[in-house]
Every structure is written in C-alpha cells, then in structure tokens.
Write the structure tokens for this entry.
Amino acid sequence: MKVDNSLPLEYSTEENNLKILGFWIFLGAEIMLFATLFAAYFTLENRIGNGPSGAEIFEITPVLVETFLLLSSSFTIGLAIHAMRLGKKKAMMTFFSITLLLGAGFLGFEIYEFIHYVHVGATLQTSAFTAALLTTLGTHGLHVTLGLFWGLFILMQIKKRGLTPETANKSFIFSLYWHFLDIVWIFIFSFIYLKGMM
Amino acid sequence: MKELFPLKQVMGFVFSLVLTAVALLVYFTDMPFAVGMTILLITAFIQAGLQLIVFMHAGETNDKNSIYTNVYYGLLIALITVFGTLLILVWDM
C-alpha cells in the first residue's frame, strides 16, 4: 500500500481518499432523504385534524438545549480531528469522548421531548402533522443514535490500535457524518420549531 | 493546550452560536411572517455553509471539485423536491 506522508493520515492512501469521497456521495443522498421528509412536513404541517398544532406542543427550552448540545458536539469533533492531525492521540480521544457525551445528552432531551409529545396527545397516529413531525424528528434522532454506537466503536479501535491510516480515516468519516447531522438539526430547529412557534 | 484550539474552528463555533441567537429573534420578537422566514433562511444556509467549509474541510483535497459538485447536486435536488412540493401541493400553482 502506497502511503503518502505529506498528507494527513486519513488521506494517506488511495483507498482512504476514495472512502472519503464515497462518504461525501452518501451524504449527498442523505441530503435528498431529509429533503423529502421536509417536503412532506411542509405539506402536512397545517393538517392537524383534531390534534394539537405545533405552536401548542413545541417547548422552546428543550429545543434550545438540544441545539446547544449538538452545536457544541460538532465543534468538539472538529477539535478531535484537529488533535488527530497533530498526532495527539490522548487529546483526540478526549474530544471524541466529549462529542459522544454531548450527543448522548442531545438524545436524552429528544427522548424527553417525545415522551412529552405522547403525553400531550401528539402521537404518530394523531394527525398528518404529528405523523410528519415525528417521522422527521425520529429519522434525525435515529441517525444520532446510530452515530453514537458507530463513534463508540471507533473510539475503542483507536484505544486498541492507536492512530493508524485506517482508524484516522474512520474517525474523519465519522466527523463528516456528525457535522452533517448538525446541519440537518439546524434546518429542523429553524423550519420546524422556530417557524412553528413564530 | 493552545494548539488544540485552532482560531478558525473556535471562531466558527462562536459564529454558529451568534447565528443561532439571530435566528432566535424570530421567536422572541414580534415580526411579520415573511421577515421571520427570510431571517431563518439566511441564518440556516450560512450556518450550513459554515459547517461545510470550516468543520468538514470540504475544500482541502484534490477531490475538492467532485465533493462540491456532489454537494451542490444533492442541494439542487433537495431544493427542487421541497419547493416543487410546496408549489404544487401548498401554494396551489
């Protein structure tokens, strides 16, 4: 395997380069997936039937906390990649762990939010609005959940094998995924919550 | 310690918090719907671009052109999907 030492570890082989490009193409498909969910949500958001409307069930505090946690975790995974490029394994693992903890915090608040929705009578079957809302939020939440486990396994590999072209490549790709989820959340925050409460 | 916090990323984080605060004006102040939506569209897309360039290092390798082409294509289809749906099903045109 040809290793180019002038490049950061995660780009150092041809295979690594292709994996990163391939992941960007996957993210392109993810953009379209979330676009269809947003399209469905915008179409159905006023079809509330006998159920509650967005303005009635959205709570600003948990949404703000979730936004802050996810924005911070996007920052710390960026710092983890930066530390990785400096070859600082310990600092990298610390930032990586903080990222996963913030992600877990986000998920905790989102679970609370879902319990709150069911509690006030907004379930998946209540109306077209709640179905579209919970599907969109749920798809994002599912991505975060998957990311938590994925990240945890990468972290364990780094602990065991150190920073190699393989583990560095996996970490970098994970960071792309995590930043992408943050971008999706920004759109959920702006066009579902804030628009709904405006 | 200082080398672990590159200025570019710290500024990126601060800027993303500022953008979030600006978006929150929509909630905390009374404004017409159109003005609010304009603010949200601007802050959300700047925020997305910020993540893409500062944190995702989109432009740093030889694959830069393929990566941007792919992202723009994804974005184009996303916008056509969302606005096409709105046009037909909500705005009734």
Remarks:
- Chain B has a mean pLDDT of 89.
- Chain B touches chain A through 49 residues (CB under 8 Å).
- Helices of chain B lie at 7-28, 33-55, 64-90.
- Residues 1-56 of chain B form one domain.
